[in-house]
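User: Could you walk me through two proteins back to back? I'd like the raw sequence and the structure tokens for each, with a short line separating them so I can tell where one ends and the next begins.

Assistant: Of course. Protein one, sequence then structure:
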Amino acid sequence: MSVLQVSIKHAGYSGKKRAIEQIAFELHKGELVGLIGPNGAGKSTMIKTILGLVDEIEGEIIFQRKEDYAYIPEHPTYYDELTLWEHIELVRAVHGIEDADYEERVHTLLDIFRLEHAKHDYPGSFSKGMQQKLMIIIAVLTKPKLYIIDEPFIGLDPKAIKDFLLILEAERKNGAAILMSTHVLDTAEKICDRFLLINHGHVIAAGTLSEIQKVSKLEGSLMDCFYELMDK
């Protein structure tokens, strides 16, 4: 059974032109699907539609378990009055996490992302990269079966990107499915099982790299195929 089924006839915002149309795909256990497209193509609207955050939608979004997903936004969101550690404790309380190894997992993630020294500081004083690391840590701690990730690499340093990719690979091996929007095409080509290329609110190509190459009539990289299809 798929972890996520998306069938959108059209979706958008009140009083505006339909932002996305005729989009259908499934996401399976252990699979990483890359959502690729230029700025304004409709990627963020697609993610918001899946999350139920758009005003108008005709279509159907089916989760295997609606409560069992984690969202990592492009722009970190946090409570100004809570420290990093208090955010982590809030996650534990809200999700009812009773794992005996919870604090051990927290400290492991803090070590990986080099945030142990800042655990009692307020995220408002953090750099964008540090705030993004907090979003990743919060998502991973909930042990979701589905990750929905919007432009996660912005602000992360090279080591943090590598660490994040290793975490995603481990989560996939544990059966988590991942839908990730990104502009970093060389990285997407290496880690994604399939791709959804979107432009002007429509999917213009979908599938594995070899399937994308057939559509674009190129034998090149994902970036080569992307530029070829954008020009049509």
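----
Protein two, same layout:
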Amino acid sequence: MKDALIAKLQDKSAVIGIVGLGYVGLPLVLRFAEAGYRVIGFDIDPAKVEALARGETYIEHIPAAAIASANAAGFTATTDYARAAEADALIICVPTPLNPYREPDLSFVLGTMDALLPHLRPGQIVSLESTTYPGTTDEELKPRIESRGLAVGRDAFLVFSPEREDPGNRDFTTRTIPKVCGGCTPACLEAGLALYGGVIDRVVPVSSTRAAELTKLLENIHRAVNIGLVNEMKIVADRMGIDIHEVIRAAATKPFGFVPYYPGPGLGGHCIPIDPFYLTWKAREYGLNTRFIELAGEVNAAMPDYVVAKVTGALNSVRKAVNGSRILVLGIAYKKNVDDPRESPCVILMEKLRDLGAEIAYSDPHLPIFPKMREHRFDLCSVELTPDSLAAYDCVIVATDHDRFDYAMIRDCAALIVDCRGRYLEPAGHIVKA
């Protein structure tokens, strides 16, 4: 079974099924199609499936021409999970959020696996790419597959290979970012290496799915902890009257032993604000408290409140209250130059200011209409930045520092600016660092 699957993967006669056509799944679709595989994409959102059939894109950094090329190569998208039986490989790329109690929510992963189960057959490989706690693949997916009478490692193959997408980063592509892969058995790992070896320049094998799952968590917790450190340093520096961005620039000149991280209004994106909690939750099963990781999470989670306090102080300095003030938030994506608002601290900041009575608006050239989000709702469209529109607001907050903003115009036309990103290096009376 294994040898036949590997042969099909190597000669590219295998059909690749990718479940979840978002920021992770869609780039994988394009890469497998580009490499010569026939690809079937699965998603529960009919609007995405219809857009892809028309050759349209719904992710800003993925051009429509790439979708059209994939379609011409035989790619099809569907909401019909019964077509999973056609695939030799099924790659699961669905969200793994937190529930209201900051505990892992595997409902998307498990719901997807349960939807695929009736259509599994011998000779397939299933790969989970969604970030999760160590043990998920072994403890949750493997028993489900074996409930179909398929022995994992003999009849079917199961691996964990965490996504490493960085939307908007032109220096790295799906092909050039090394891919970690761990299998439930040695045979599973062999099949996983064959699956990804045909489309990724370097595949990094690890000893187990648990090692691969923890690898992904370590990568993102490393960032979360360091961002927490620099966010706390920002507060200390501000109290001492020191510009933290000047300090970071100076420290970054050291050619060894220092990696610059930059403060902001909080953590965003699907991974970094969420992944630490997957590990802390699982660690409790082993009687461990991950105090260092949880402290960084607390620091980062407090950043929107810190910005609100800075906005309140800035408005007070000009004899205005937050209640009734018109406040414009620049950027609602979680990082610069992308159209991805997932877990964006800017949206949390907007909600907190709205709850205090402010009249909130936003401007984001990458998100012209406020997107549908599971937990946040605003009926807003992006404000076009002009001298007149900027002058109409009591306070302008630089929340996400997109390159497409005209920062000179913003400086010259806004009455009051709260800068969360260090875009303004020179001191000015109407600019407050946050």
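DSSP finds 15 helices and 13 strands in the chain.

Let me know if you want the two compared in more detail.
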